[in-house]
Amino acid sequence: MSLHAVFPMKYIVKEAHYARLCSTKPILTVNGQFPGPTIRAYHGETVYVNVHNKAKYNITLHWHGVKQPRNPWSDGPEYITQCPIKPGGKFKQKLIFSIEEGTIWWHAHSDWARATVHGTIIIYPKPGTSYPFPKPDAEHKLTVVGADSSYSKPVTRDYICISPGQTVDALLHANQEPNDYYMAARAYSSAVGAAFNNATTTARIHYNENHSPTKSPSLPYLPSYNDTKAAFDYYGSIKGIPEYYPYKVPTNITTHMIATLSVNIVPCPEGQTCGGPNGTNFASSMNNISFESPTIDILEAYYNHISGVYDKGFPRFPPLVFNFTAEYLPLVLEIPRKGTKVGIIKYGSTVEIVFQGTNLVAGIDHPIHLHGTSFYAVGYGFGNFDKHKDPMTYNLIDPPLINTILVPKNGWATIRYRAANPGVWFVHCHLERHLSWGMETVFIVTNGKRSDEKVLRPPPDMPRC
User: Fold this and answer.
1) Model pLDDT for residues 245-288, shown as the tens digit of each residue
2) Number of other residues whose CB lies within 10 A of the CB of residue 33
3) Could you tell me which residue ranges the Plastocyanin-like domain spans (predicted)?
4) 123: closest CA among 46, 47, 43?
C-alpha cells in the first residue's frame, strides 16, 4: 500500500504574502503554504516529488534524514549533489525511504531559503505492523519514543531539547482534568554576547469537554536559556533500541577521524565594512579548513571524473594541535585556510568521528548533520577529548541512532557508523550562519564491488549548472 502510488507530489516554489507579528510581507513558500506541505509515507516506500521553481531565485530541496540509498542525486544541497533549480526550472526528485520510521523534515538547501521553505515528513510503519512502545501514562509529561526517525527507549521528560536539524517523536497522554494547559518553548543558547530571541513561545492544549478554561494557565518549567547541563542531561537520557536498528554499534573501527569545529575570522575585503572583531569578517571551519563551494556540483564532478572541482585529502586529524578549549588562544590560530577538500571513505568502512569544539573567537554548541546516513551517538564530554580516557565512557550497548548531533560548547561528541551508502554526502553545522561561513565538508563513499553497492545512474532531468 502506498500513500503516493498514483501521482507524484507537486511542489511549486513561489512567493506568497503572509502576516506575522502584525505585519504582512512576501516570503518564499512551497504551494503557497508556510510551513510547507507534509509528506506521508510508509516504511520502505519510494515517493516522487515534482519541484517547479516559479520564484525569482535559485532553489534546492533537501529531504533531511532520508538516507537515499545509492541515490545522492536527489539529496539536494546546492553545488554538493546538484546545481540549483533555476527560476522556471523543474526537477523530479526521488525519495527512497529505507530504515526511517517516525518524524523528520524537508527544507531548502540553498542560501537562506530554509527559513520559510520547510515542512514535515512522517514515515509510518509498514501496514500490519505496530509501534514498539506502549500507551503512555505520564500526566502531561512528554514520553520520548524516537529521534531523527529511529525509535528510542521510552523515557518520560519534563522538557525536551532539540537542536537545529533534529526531530523528536514524543507521546502525550491527555488524561488530566478538562481545562486549558500551556505548552512552552524557548531558545537554548550557550554563546556569550550573541544576540538571540529570548522570548518564550506558547501554545495551549485544549480539552473538548465542557469546562470553563483558565484564563491564564500556569507556565510549565523550562531550564534557563544557557543551561548546558540540562541540555546534555536530556541527550544522555535518550537510549536506542538495538533490535530495531539495521546493524550493531561498530566496535572494530577501520576509519578514525577527529574534526575540530571553530568559529574564525578572515581579513575584510578592501572597500567593504565587516562585522567581525576589529573590522574582520567572520568565518568558520572544520579542521581549520573553511569550505568554499564550487560552481559545478561535486557529485557531477565525481561521477563524470571532472577534475579541478574539488581536492581530496580532508584531514583525518586536526592539522593544528593546541589546547582547543583554553580561555585565551593566540590570534594567529583564528585565521583558517580556505578550500574545497573532501574526505574519501571506502565502502564498508566502520567509521568513528570525534567532533571537537574549540574556543577560537567564541565557543558555542554546534549541531552537526551528516547526509546519507544515520549514526550512533556513542559519547559526549566537555573539554578536550582524551583518546586514552574518554572512549572508556562510550555507550556501545544502546546508543541512539540519529542523523544530527549537538556538539557541546568547548566539548566533544563521538559518532560511529558503517559507510554503506555510496555517493557524495554533505557534512555540516546546521546553524545556517556557520554553514554560510564554511563549517562543512564532503565525504565521498566509494562504490562497493557488487552492483547493488554502486551509485545509481543520474536522472535525465538533473538541473544544469
Assistant:
1) 999 999 999 999 999 999 999 999 888 888 888 899 999 999 99
2) 12
3) 13-126, 139-210, 337-448
4) 43
C-alpha cell, 158: 519534563
Residues 6+ apart with CB under 8 A from 128: none
Lookup: cell for 76? 539536494
Domain positions in the chain are: 9-124, 142-232, 244-453
**C-alpha–C-alpha distance, residues 94 and 86, integer Å:** 19
Specify the 3-state DSSP secondary structure of 453: helix
Query: Would the pTM count as exceeding 0.70?
Result: yes
Question: At 1, is the pLDDT very low, low, confident or very high (cuts 50, 70, 90)?
Answer: very low
Read off the amino acid at residue 100: E
CA angle (320, 324, 328) in 5-degree steps? 110
Quickly list DSSP for 180-217: EEEEEE------SS-----PPEEEEEE--SS----SSP
State which fold the 9-124 domain adopts. Immunoglobulin-like (2.60.40)
CA distance 27 to 287: 36
Q: Does domain 244-453 have CATH number 2.60.40.420?
A: yes
Residue 415 DSSP SS3: strand
